[in-house]
Structure formats: C-alpha cells, structure tokens
Amino acid sequence: MKAVTVIPGIPESLRLMDIPKPNLGKGQTLLKPIRVGVCGTDKEIIEGRYGKAPEGSQYLILGHEAVAEVVELGDGVDNVSVGDIVIPTVRRPLNCDLPVDFCPINHYLEHGIWGLHGHAAEYSVTDAKYLVRVPKEAIDVAVLTEPLSIVEKGIDLAIKLGQARFDWKPRTALILGAGPVGLLATMTLRLLGLSTVTTATRPLDSLKARLVKELGGTYVDSAVEQITGEFDIVIEATGSPQVINDGLKHMAPNGIYVLLGVYPSGGSLSNLGELMTNVVLNNKVIVGSVNAGIKHFEMALDHLKRAKEELNNWPAKLITKRANLNNYQEAYTWTHDDIKTVLEITPL
C-alpha cells in the first residue's frame, strides 16, 4: 500500500512509500482512510523537530487528523461495524490509568506523531475502543473533528471551572489567533451564544476575517488595531509568548484563560508581577489544555453538524487546499492564507 512517511529527526525526509498492509490484532479495526487533515504538528515532524517512529520501524506514517471507513474487524470488536465511517482519536495510554488525554508526557503514544503510525495511507490499524462514529450529516466536514475536539475540551474546562465557583454565565470571549483552532473556537463559542472578538495579523479583507464576520463575530487585525474591553473567556491559539501577555490584560474579573498553543522556548512576559497580582485579586483562572478524549470528539461532531445546518455549511469553508497521494507534497507546504489542508486518500 502507499503511505506518506518521514524519518523522525531527519529534516525533509518526507516520502511516499510502498509498504505492506498492516496486520490486524485482537480488539483492532482495519481502516481505509478517506481524508487526513494536515496541521502544524506535521510541519514540526517533517522539519525533524519532533516525532518518533514506532518501535522497530525506521519511519513514521504521518496523519493524526483522520476520517476513515471500517473495512475489517479484529477478534472481540463489537462497538463498530464494517462500513461505519469513524474518527480515530489520537492518543493511546502507555503505563497510565488516567483518561488518556490527561496522561503525562512519556506515558502515551500518538498516531502519526509519537510511536504509532498514522493514517496518511491507503490502510491503517487502530484499537476499536478509540473510534468515534460519524453521523452521515457530518461526513464531508468530519476531517475537522480532531482540531475541534481540542477546542471543545478547552471550552468545556473553562465553563466547568467557572461554574464550580458560582453560577458563572460567560457572555463574552476573546480568541487570539485565526488559524484552524482559533476559527473553530470562534464557531463553537458563537454556537454557545457568546459574543466573540477574534484577533490575528491578517487584514480585514482576508478570508480569515470574512469567516469570523460570517459567524457574527468581530475581527480585529492586531497589526493595525488594538483590542479593547474585557472578556469572560480568553482562548490563546497562536503559540506566541507575547500574545499570552495580551490575553492576560483583557481577562474580565472571574474570567478563564485557556492556553491551547504550544510555545517555543525563550520569550518573556513584561510586567509579570502586576499581571499575576491582577489574576489573584480578581479570581481569574489560567488553564492549559492538550489533546481530547472521546467525549470531546463527540461534542465536536455535534457542533460540526449544527454548524452545517445553522451556519450555511460554514465548516467546509475552512478547507482551503486539497491534495491526494499523487501530489501529496502539495499537502505539506504552507502559506499564510492556508487554513486547513486536507489529503484526500479515498473518494467519499
């Protein structure tokens, strides 16, 4: 079968390889991937800055954002059927009894990222208990489920933390960043009824700005305009240390700040003491969130379905580039105006 591979730690080792079809074990399913999304983590792996091949393999098959068809069942599988369209979640526990998305570093494996082959191939294998069925109404946008699951977990944490203190009813949200995660956060918060401001460095006539406005949100070009006001929920989705600082300044009293970005080493926060004192005196909460469990994948699919129906198929507009196995290299090049690139492996 054909598979998109890299040798982790070796920059620019991206290749399309012919390799054997994977073997099916007990409790596993053989999948025929339909679409695979591409994100910044793939870029880091291709550049040799991250990633780990499975034990005994020199190469790693990419692809952690996938929608696939179940084509064969291993012994003992009864939660899915052949022909089901599913989303495989990303993480698998390694000597960890916690919910898998809360397992600490070195206690999990990740499809297409760390120690497990991904789904950018004609076939892939995964444990059946980590599959989420896709409703037929959401199949065409289901490739967005994994990045949206990250958003769902972060917002879910924010609301639960806020309401654990008192009858907290957030009304406003600031989203820092207008990549896939920032835009999906804007969509979700709008579906939940919040007033949103989304800020990024793209101009007001850019596709990203237009997509925010289509949701009824406000877009701020941070290169030319300042953010004003305070917000009950702040979502940081840029991975920029300086942007963290901006978000802290705009938290409302009792607000929740959700960090979804992954940050480079170095950097500093100005006026850190003043900012942290303000956090303490105003009962603010800062929380980091990574990965997601099955519940948040299911929430993501529900919101994708709603957004298709209520927002004129808005999620489909995030897919701005498509490639296939014949021109797979196109899927792994990036420009400022790309939002979500999709590798189409099998026709829907």
From TrEMBL:
Residues bound to substrate: 41, 110, 146, 291
Glucose dehydrogenase C-terminal domain segment(s): 140-345
Keywords: Carbohydrate metabolism, Metal-binding, NAD, NADP, Nucleotide-binding, Oxidoreductase, Zinc
EC number: 1.1.1.47
Residues engaged in binding NADP(+): 178-181, 260-262, 289-291
Annotated catalysed reactions: D-glucose + NADP(+) = D-glucono-1,5-lactone + NADPH + H(+); D-glucose + NAD(+) = D-glucono-1,5-lactone + NADH + H(+)
Alphabetical list of CDD domains matching this protein: glucose_DH
Protein name from the UniProt record: Glucose 1-dehydrogenase
UniProt source species: Vulcanisaeta souniana JCM 11219
Gene name in the database record: gdh
